[in-house]
Amino acid sequence: MPDNTLRARDEAFWRTFADRYEVQPGPINLENGYFGRMSRTVVEEYQRNIELINRSNSVYVRQRFEQGESQKISSQVAGLIGVAAESVALTRNATDGLQALIRNYNRLQPGDQVLFSDLEYDTVKGAMRWLARNRGVEVIEIEHPHPASFDSLLNTYREAFTRYPRLKLMALTHVTHRTGLVMPVQAIAAAAREHGIDVILDGAHALGQFEFDLNELGIDFAAYNLHKWIGAPLTLGFIFIAPERLADIDPDMGEMHFPVTDIRARTPYSTPNIPALLTLPLVIEEHHAMGGSTAKGTRLNYLRNLWVKPARELSGIEVMTPDDPRLYCGITSMRFVAHADQQPMVERLLRDYNLFTVVRSGAACGPCIRITPGLTTTAADMMLLTTALTELR
């Protein structure tokens, strides 16, 4: 077995990392998909940076941060996904980045078509509908069959590409926030390219859960979060634009603080959370020291499978995410089949078993309960979840 697979099962090893995080007494958090914890040392560094910027104010920012430190930090962020520094611009989060990419994409003409599926983030759906109102394009909305498979997901897109010949742009989510389904991005992007369709990738949940190569995936436009699985403070994310495609994204609302050849012109110019940005070098160092996305993802998948495998055998429980290793990560959703409304069962999990979870809705397959372990989650927590599902079904 690979070293990461062995380590994923080593509770003592992961306890050494879990002990680096402050955890408030209370419910067991199985909703780590919202945002991740900062380690104790990152919190301390963040506090020091808040105090530094508060003391020095614009003197430090003008003389040091804007004169080179910000670009060094961008370069380190670009290193997380193995791309050139000039192809990355920092944002507050993936949502801000996706909205900027969508609204500034300049290759659309009235009558063109844009596409998204039921599994996209609601803000992305809203941005694509904004294009219809403001650019005169037609929005195509598709639904994925449930249960999903690699072939069914790919075929749904292939059928849409053939049926709608005026498609020019599509949104695609790498890891869906509703069910945790990992989309076969490389195959979908290749099919889109055959039809002349550009893809804007929502990587909000992907970064930090597994390794990927954007060039291999065939992705030219993407947005990511740093506050989910990388361990950064809130308010940090970034966009990626392949350098040869920069001209296809306009400067944001005529942004002129940076040259038109600078990717930073593609996002709104504002005063960022400088203390948080100054904390990123330590965040990235700790991410790599922990073993990076491969080690984190292997651990999260192990915890996921501890509850999913027994849950598959329970009548009255439906696990929404397939077990094809190409299509799942640590995030997985389920539902109690006897209940149309899953919220009362979320409340039972919390009240009777001290397990904090969240309902996700909006997918064509119906509402579900999202289960997301984190780096402080233990195998015992997963066993408790299994007990709860067994008794509540």
UniProtKB/TrEMBL annotation:
GO terms for molecular function: transaminase activity. Residues 61-368 form the Aminotransferase class V domain. This is Class V aminotransferase. The keyword Transferase applies. Keywords: Aminotransferase, Pyridoxal phosphate, Transferase. It comes from Pseudomonas umsongensis. InterPro entries: Aminotrans_V_dom (IPR000192), PyrdxlP-dep_Trfase (IPR015424), PyrdxlP-dep_Trfase_major (IPR015421), PyrdxlP-dep_Trfase_small (IPR015422).
